[in-house]
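Hi R.,

Here's the input for the EPZ complex you asked about:
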Amino acid sequence: MDKIIISGGKPLCGEVIISGAKNAALPILTATLLSSEPQYLKRVPNVVDLFTLKKLLRTMGAEITDQNDLCAISVKQITSCEAQYEWVKTMRATVLVLGPLLARCGEAHVSLPGGCAIGVRPVNLHLSALSQMGAEILVEHGMIHAKVKKLKGCAIHFETSTVTGTENIMMAATLADGTTTLTNSAMEPEIIDLACFLNGCGAKITGAGTETIVIEGVSRLTGSSYSIMPDRIETGTLMAAAAITGGDLNLRDCVPDHLASVTRLFKKMGIKIISGKSSLRVQRPKASLMRAADFITAPYPGFPTDMQAQMMALLSVSDGVSKITEAVFESRFAHAAELRRMGAKIYLEGSHAIVEGVQKLSGAQVMASDLRASSSLILAGLSAEGETEISRVYHLDRGYERIEEKLSKVGADIKRVHG
Ligand code: EPZ
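And here is the predicted structure with EPZ in place:
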């Protein structure tokens, strides 16, 4: 298994171009199941989760070719409606094929996603919404068996804001009979991106990005060309890299508005942020201390849970005591134990983490537990004294495109060792 070795203490300076968003590309790729016409997608990130999903879609009859930055997908006919456990155990987002399969061919057999390092991750809200739309759903032997003659539009209220739940039902409703109204919908930018893609294929979706989304069912969807939105979590992670190393990074081709809650927190910590139209410049003179700050994770536009681990690393070397509250997932603090190995002072109590800033972290051998935890350890290694060796970086490769190359181009002493 690959490892990443970092020799810390070097300020990062220069420019990084942000890749397409993993969490927008995943639902948009599953949405290609809804049309028999060719789709042309740009900025699909080269990360493992997307490689996995393309392989799965090919088993369902999709023809997919990647040339440079263009991904061409054509699903003339769906030849299989199955996504077995082997797919779902490596990537929970496989559940996003459920809505499109039911809408396009009235049948789906998808392995029930298990939990993961950050929580139980149920899909009850997905299933109850699909059954409200008329699907017959049977869950047995770890498989979701769903079938329907034709999905029916209806009013659906999500008790909890769910990103992939909103996405699954929005996709299912595009070809349903009649109109579907979703209330308490998730408002993440990735949902707007999916709605823009679907409307480009002839869907009739309004309200994406607000709590109420209305989808008027249509008879078919056409092909289209679309460019995936930039990855706001990669952007936030690189913002943290500039801050934790006392550097000066200009992040290009991003959407500053998507990072409003992160930028607000950085400014409270005394980090300088200059927002351009499609760029964010982050500066923190090495001599200046970052101030401690408290935050609570929340659905968008609140502070993103996918930035919580990265912020814990940053606050570990800030001046003072910070309180982190993880209010979205029930066990998303696995990175704390590894940061402690590097000298961080972190005390966990239920959904709270108290971080007492220290002068310096020290390099150590640490282990990644999940995607965002691995980026948190990279940040800590970039700032620590000495060498840090991070194992199980397959977690990192699921969601970050060549991040060690991007970091070394702006001054990091970082390399990947193939194990
Ligand atoms: C999406 O996961 C993202 N993944 C996650 O990013 C992200 O952390 C999460 O949204 C929250 O922003 C993708 O988009 C592929 P949820 P998702 O459904 O949709 C509960 C990353 O690092 N819930 O919004 O699975 C759930 O337990 C990943 O890129 C139910 O109870 O998250 C959680 O507490 C990690 N029943 C809360 O809702 C359901 O049926 C939010 O989960 C569904 C969710």
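One thing worth noting: The pocket of EPZ is lined by residues 23, 26, 93, 119, 121-126, 160, 162-165, 186, 305-306, 328-329, 371-372, 399 (CB under 6 Å).

Cheers,
M.
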